[in-house]
Specification:
The protein is mostly helical. It has a domain of about 35 residues. The chain has 3 helices and no strands. The two termini are about 15 Å apart.
Length: about 100
Amino acid sequence: MNAKPLMLAAVFCAGGATSHAESKPATPNILFFLTDDESWLERSAYGWSKLRTPAFDRVAREGVLFTNGFTSAPSCAPSRASVLTGHHLWELEQGAFIQAFIPKK
């Protein structure tokens, strides 16, 4: 699997991007926020009030906030490796383990 479906989804979700030059086509303004060892509860934009995240809340308010998400792996390192490479969990070799690395190949 390649990253084209993910990139296409991000482009469609960023629909509000505009360009100031008349002859230049609009380019999407995409911010892909990736963290480690966090859950959705740790962002106040999702309603958890114990940790204030004003900058993230502003991005969520002025952009797109996903309320449903799916992952290719049940833990952080393999899931992140899948996002970064565009490969399924079973294609990552060492990258599919929690304390691992992505092979250079």
